[in-house]
Design a protein that fits this description.
4-stranded antiparallel sheet; 9 helices; globular; alpha/beta
Length: about 300
């Protein structure tokens, strides 16, 4: 089951959300065709930008396109020229006003689509597929992934017969719905045919549905940061000079008194209350020197 279904569609509403958000009755097929054309135009026109995903949201007279990319500088261009060109092309395609948002992917090593694109690019440049897969696995695990699986299918190494090989590291629970698993697919165009690259990356379990987590995130942003209720913020903490000494009173009051028999030094009275010993007392309390014989035992 985990190998026969797309993890994004399998977990819709639980850990993932729809890539296109709009509603239509009679124009449903037209909007579907436009979404396919928009994504195809962006992926083919900006191949070197490292586009992870394209999210589309429609209203009655406006289309909002969010581009998640690992290299936003390529999409924006010099002085925003490339972004303006892309926006004008999208307006010609849709016939509506387009709002273009370019968002950066903070950790591209743990993004499944970007990892698949990187492996496919290496296969197209004649890199050994085992080396490319192992390198992508190591970089993803170092970046904080809980598990990763990479599968390549096709004429691997230029062989005459196609086959599939995969490598897995860590845990990838494909049947667990609460597991946050990112999935990506890309094709490598080689001289001896196309090689498909599939990547599954497990990032940990999540609690609650996607709508509940979005509501919690909005509530945290409304309260102004991550400060928990009942705890003072960073600006409300007292200065370091006004803080009490840490553990001084606890250690002196709560620590048990040790006697001299236990090997701990006894408490010394203050110097003012201790009487000074007389020369006679000093001579009386001083131990006598031990007698030594000429021969050692």
């Amino acid at each position: 089951m985990g190998q026969k279904i797309n993890p994004h569609g399998f977990r819709l509403g639980i850990t993932t959300d729809h890539r296109s958000r709009w509603y239509a009755d009679k124009l449903y097929s037209n909007y579907i065709g436009e979404d396919v054309k928009i994504r195809r135009m962006l992926t083919k026109g900006l191949e070197r930008a490292g586009i992870s995903s394209v999210e589309i949201e429609r209203t009655r007279d406006r289309v909002r396109v969010d581009i998640f990319t690992a290299r936003p500088g390529i999409v924006i261009g010099r002085n925003g020229a490339e972004a303006e060109r892309v926006r004008s092309d999208l307006e010609k395609l849709t016939g509506k006003q387009v709002q273009l948002n370019i968002l950066e992917v903070k950790n591209p090593e743990t993004d499944a689509q970007l990892v698949a694109q990187g492996v496919a690019e290496q296969l197209a440049s004649r890199v050994q597929f085992r080396r490319a897969m192992r390198k992508a696995q190591q970089s993803a695990m170092r970046s904080g992934a809980r598990g990763i699986r990479i599968q390549c299918s096709g004429r691997l190494g230029g062989a005459e017969m196609s086959r599939s090989e995969f490598y897995r590291e860590g845990q990838v629970p494909l049947h667990t719905l609460r597991a946050d698993i990112d999935y990506g697919f890309h094709e490598a165009k080689t001289t001896f045919g196309r090689i498909g690259v599939k990547v599954w990356i497990y990032k940990g379990d999540v609690s609650g549905t996607h709508a509940e987590r979005a509501a919690q995130k909005a509530a945290r942003n409304a309260t102004g940061g991550r400060s928990r209720p009942g705890r003072p913020g960073r600006g409300e903490r007292p200065a370091r000079g006004d803080r009490p000494e840490r553990g001084g009173r606890r250690r002196t009051e709560g620590a048990p008194e040790l006697t001299r028999a236990e090997g701990a030094p006894a408490e010394v009275a203050p110097a003012e209350s201790a009487p000074e010993p007389t020369p006679a007392e000093v001579g009386a309390t001083a131990p006598a020197p031990a007698e030594t014989s000429g021969q050692e035992g």
